[in-house]
Amino acid sequence: MTRSKDTKSATAIIHDQDLVRGSGGELHQVADGDTPLLTTAQGGPVADDQNTLKYGERGPSLIEDFHFREKIFHFDHERIPERVVHARGYGAHGYFETYESLAKYTRADIFQRAGEKTPAFVRFSTVAGSKGSFDLARDVRGFAVKLYTQEGNWDIVGNNIPVFFIQDAIKFPDIIHSVKPEPDRAFPQAQSAHDNFWDFISLTPESMHMIMWIMSDRAIPRSFRFMEGFGVHTFRFLNAEDESTFVKFIWKPKLGLQSVVWNEAVKINGADPDFHRRDLWDAIQAGDYPEWELCVQLFDQEFADSFDFDVLDPTKLIPEEILEPIPVGRLVLDRMPDNFFAETEQVAFMTQNVPPGVDFSNDPLLQGRNFSYLDTQIKRLGSTNFTHIPINAPKCPFHHFQQDGHLAMRNPVGRVNYQPNSWGEGPREHPARGHRSYRDEVEGPKVRLRAESFADHYSQARQFFNSQIEVEQNHIAMALTFELSKVETPVIRERVVSHLLNIDETLATKVADKLGMKKLPKPADAAIAPRDDLEPSDRLSIVKNGPESFKGRKVGVLVTDGCDAKLLRTLSDALKTEGANMEIVAPKVGGVEASDGSLIEGKQMIDGGPSVLYDAVALIVSAEGAERLTKEAAARDFVADAFTHCKFIAHVEDARPLLDKAGVEPDEGVIAISAAADVKGFVETCRKLRLWARETKVKL
Ligand code: HDE
Question: Does the pLDDT at position 3 exceed 60?
Answer without folding.
Answer: no
